[in-house]
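User: Fold both of these, please.

Assistant: Here is the first one.
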Amino acid sequence: MHSFLKLFDRRGLAELPCVTPMHAATIHPSQLIRHCKPYALMLLLVLGVCAPVIFAAPQKNAMPKGQRHESRHEIDQLEEAWRNAVLKADIAAMSALLADDYMAITPNGTLQTKEEALANLRSGATHITALEVSDRRVRFYGTTALVTSRAEVSGKSAMGDFSGTYRYTRVYVRNAQGKWKIVSFEANRVREPGERK
């Protein structure tokens, strides 16, 4: 250890393993190669080659292209099944789509469990008469699929007819049986310029 420390600059300024003592601002960095021992050069070379690999950002767990295409097709079908279940108030279909621990954030900011979502659909208090989806984007993160879309919605509620444009996020997770289930949903109204909140 003592002999190793002797390799460092005696004044402790540069802290580079060198044969000659270094004085502050007397050796230009380009001259260091001449003065440093071969193993120090080897260390610099190794770091130069390996650093980009060691410190590179971790790559995403990429899903194979064929599997991604198949999963995208499944998600598209499930999105259409969800749309039909909402329009037809199909309780059985909706129940099959939602995970038991499903949680939604409604446009008015309230939380809604699976049981509450099914009860709301069953009661008919709010009935969706038209639901046109566009700009659907699906991203996969292992066994999770994140879907964002734009939806033009019309319907009826106890307060009368309503319509509007919404952006929503729906999260699917593939369960142990290999089935995609909706675990989360959030919808937000798209406000037109100048429209009051």
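And the second sequence with its predicted structure:
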Amino acid sequence: MDFDLTEEQSLIKDQLDRLLKDRYGFEDRKKYMAAAEGFSPDMWSAYAEMGLMALPFAEDHGGIGGGPVETMIVMESFGRVLALEPYFATVVLGGGFLRSGASDEQKAELIPGIADGSTKYAFAQVERGARYDLAHVSTTAAKDGSGWKLSGAKSLVLHGDSADRLIVTARTGGEAGEEAGVGLFVVDAGATGVSRRGYPTQDGLRAAEISFDNVRADHVLGDPGNGMPLVRTVVDQAIAALAAEAVGVMSAMHELTVDYIKVRKQFGVAIGQFQVLQHKAVDMFIATEQMRSIAMFATMMADSDDADERARAMHAAKVELGRGGRLAGENAIQLHGGVGMTTEYAVTHYFKRLTMMNTLFGDGDFHLRRLAALGGLFDKAA
């Protein structure tokens, strides 16, 4: 199988890497984090000018017609610099729901705003007590004439405080935890009845607690009583993107650590000359390459119509992200010594990001149980 990038894909990667190298150093990131939005509006505009927002969408809707591989390229590059901008929330999650669940009319109305960078989205899904269960939805959607009104609360909405539109899971029937009776609704984040409280997360990004009090939805995506298959499809695609980002994070963390042990001296010699520390650096490299392999597999499976096979790949990717990410992070901190625990050194920020990524949509232990329930990564009956 040929894993080489096409000429167009290589061009995207090269252009993005040059942009980030010039404008996204560690000190730049600190400055962006301190901005009111928690990220750089200028960088967001630069991504839009490059066409990154338009990558996964069809040309009919202002897109470029890319797919999971293009998303993988972008997310890995963002992972290397710990990018703060809401690309994952807007393009991967928000755009994923529109690509897979919106009608042609809805796509024509909503996708161009993402493609040109003028509209940011957030996925309002998590509720208190859910414990990674996507179907644990208590927020209600009540029929109101020809539309719907939403009431309830959502937690940890990634970039929810800066989003222009929210894609909200709400229950039209049944009880929390049931697969049936969940719909997906598009809501104007500034609508009457929407209350948002934003805050920084441990990895430097932003999230929000959002409440809905009889909020009128602008759009319904698909069947309002059977939205869970769409939720699981888009979350699987998002996990593939997270796996790609993890490759970028782990690669940069490994490079930082190797560079550090080459110059840090103990007993008059660089600590990189001690064999036991070399072994730990090699363990980090192996973990990174294992993450790269499973991220590629997840990328290939992201658009699969076979829900079980797609889920196996995403469960495996999250297991490796949790296991390998922790190993790489712990070794990086240990090899840096005391300074590795300080906020002045980049390595601690990389480890924080990996830790937060592990918990998003279920940690490694959760997905290991799910993978075991499916019989492992490969169907033995096939």
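Residues 171 and 381 are 36 Å apart (CA to CA).
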